Amino acid sequence: MAIALDNLRVGRFYSFTNMGENRKLEILARLSGNNFKVKDMDTTEIYTIEELLRWGKGKDYELDEWWEE
User: Architecture of 5-65 per CATH?
Assistant: First the structure.
């Protein structure tokens, strides 16, 4: 079950899946409401959650806390 956006915490890492894309994200800052500045751990790009969800949530939408074991 996906975590709600208002439960994200700055400094934590999350696994994000939407519309066939899988990303590992670090939350850098809370900008406003449910918008966060995030860093893609694979590409080191920085963008916002709003940019990731601009086209909506797909059937495969999933957002969970991520840690390596």
Answer: Roll (2.30)
